[in-house]
User: Fold these one by one.
Assistant:
Number 1:
Amino acid sequence: MPPISAVIIAKNEEERIRRCLDSLKPFAAEIVVVDSMSADRTAEICIEYGCRVIRREFDGYGSQKQFAVDQAVNDWVLSVDADEVLGPALQEEMKVMAAARELPFDAYTVPFSLVYLGRILKYSGVGNKFHLRLFNRKKGRFTTSPVHEGILTSGATGKLKNRIYHYSYRDISHHLEKINIYTSQAAEGLVNKGRHYSIPAIAFKFPMGFFNFYVIKGGLLDGYPGFMWSWLSAFYAALKIAKTRELQKKQ
């Protein structure tokens, strides 16, 4: 297997990016960071770690991540976010893969664990998530969706055994900030697709969503963090369609 390039997009991540970079250093042949004009020390910290840093205005998650992939020297690419950390077991697994002569698949999904309010959520609808992050760029690329981007690959896909830990939200206030941003982006996408929602749809979306996350998906087993995750996930779903109606009326 050729050397692996790790690619990251980041903005104002000086508080969290060191932990991510530390988890990549043991195996990555290079680390490419596309910095979206950070106002803090993000770029400076990455340079200290020996990363190749490229400053670029943010134009959407999918296109920004694909730009980062295109800058890599190697065809095998691991895409991670600045708030994600490879666990020690995954670092060792990646070392083994980087030393292999060849791999049986063209892309690999990675198991994820969300760390929320100081607890690893084992249920709540996020306890068994896999995301495609390691791939041969000759066989795959990012979609250009403004939010919830993904990687499309024409090759066969395998699974890695060990986990990435996602520290997506610093606290509840930060979670609410991200909900506001993501629901606005999602609403724009739904309007462009011609989706329409009624007032009853908004009214029932929250209680149904909360019941789904907290009861059906087991959020109650994750204690207080599971309760807040379920509550805010249901709020996200309801707010997204409310903003969609709002945009449609403005148009």
Number 2:
Amino acid sequence: MSTSTSAFANNSQIQVRKELAKEHNFRYVGIPTSKNTVRILSKQWDWKLIDFNGKPLTKDVLHLTSFSEGRARVQETVDAYHQYFIDEIGNRIINEASIVCRDSYFSEGLASVRDKKHKIGYMDKQGNLAIACLFQQVTEFSDSVAWVRYPLPSPMGDLFYLIDKSGNEVIDEPFLAVNDFVDGVAGVQVPKFKFKGKRFCLEAYDCYYVIIDSNGNQLSENKFVYVEQFAGNVAIAYRQDNKQIFINKQGEQISKNAYEGLGTISDGICSLPLADQSKAYYIDTYENQISKAYDEVNPFSEGLGCVREQGKYFFIDCSGKEVFADFFDKAEPFNEGVAQVQKDQEVFYIDHTGEKVF
């Protein structure tokens, strides 16, 4: 699971970041925390947390993630197993009996950790073990629930169970594959079971996806080959013919058409390739085309889409309009209020107006 996306940086935050980068010659300056501290990437390619005066609050480390719920994950060396969390002034948040999981982040007050036997549980923001390390695989909490998989496979294969913040199973039946809950709903793959003697066996060929709520109630009568994670009230589902459609939380088709090659929904927009796959354009979840076709389109991020045409990258808004005049040799989608671009061999970051930040 990826880390949570930070909110857009506002103008005052951008100005602080810009001034810090200029004064100290930093390669990157993150979004300031509520404690007037900020993570930076130095010219030596080391990450650290500093205050607004440039005073280091942590030692140089290999990686320091963005903050989620006032906590950031630190990786000191190339050994990914030696990780821990810090608060917004650099204090370590450690549970001595467990190790922070790779790609872990705080969500709803909990983050995943593992013990010396490689079993996974959850710790709270003070470093206390909140849910015992019993699992082989977990997701972060969403809508007060999380998916977990136990260490030993069942006779039916790897199965996911839904737990609450006390570690108790919410529903009895497990699922073969799952999505995170978004606003109380998720797509799950339901296995078909039959008895063989006294044991359950799995008929994997007859599995299908449905929509459930966080209490385990099935919301959809329709069955799908696959359902992507919901983006607000809409998700992309694959029908039996592998065509893609938009569905609502009840699993009902809300699109007039079926498609091939829909991209991930972000900011209510997704990409769609031309029939010959040579180019792609953007549509919204109401099936309105909002842009012309480009050589390359990336998922929208922070309200802007990064596209390429005739070898040059630029950005468009949700109406398909170019947002600033500059074109770049390379560009990445926006994250934390800035986007990394390259022009004339120089690599730098721009803000939402296209102005160079650092």
